[in-house]
Amino acid sequence: MVGDGFHVVTLDPDAVGDLPVDVGLCVIAEGGVTDVDGVYPSWFSEHGCTTAVVRPDGYVFGTARDATELTRVLAELGERLDRPRRTRSMPS
Asked: Which of 3, 7, 48, 75 has CA atoms 20 to 30 A from the CA of 64?
């Protein structure tokens, strides 16, 4: 278990090294969690990335190959979380 909220799972700790402390993400670098089934390296290889931003429901929000791409993914996440949510109007 990694807790609630968004989290970053990475095989490349350098990709997350410059994240601001107040980013509000749980960062899991290789060696920080036991991959008992050994699925992380093959999953990252299949998806051509080294880092994944995972939503609270366990779905992957975005992936990155390096720190630059991770910064872009996190900026997009921030924009989406800051947007006002649209509500559906109920039929009268």
From this structure: 3
In a domain, 69, yes or no: yes
Rounded to whole angstroms, the Cα distance separating 66 from 61 reads: 16
Quote the CA–CA distance of 20 and 16 in Å, as a whole number.
9
Q: Is the pTM of this model over 0.85?
A: no
Mean pLDDT of 68-87: 81
Chain-centre distance for alpha carbon 51 = 7
Domain range for 11: 7-82
**H-type alpha helices, 5-66:** 13-16, 39-47
Residue 19 in domain: yes
Instruction: Give the model's pLDDT for residue 32.
Output: 59
Where do the DSSP E strands lie in the chain?
7-10, 26-29, 51-54, 60-64
CA–CA separation, 53 and 55 (whole Å)? 7
Examine residue 89 and state whether it is found in any structural domain, yes or no.
Answer: no
User: Is 36 domain-assigned?
Assistant: yes
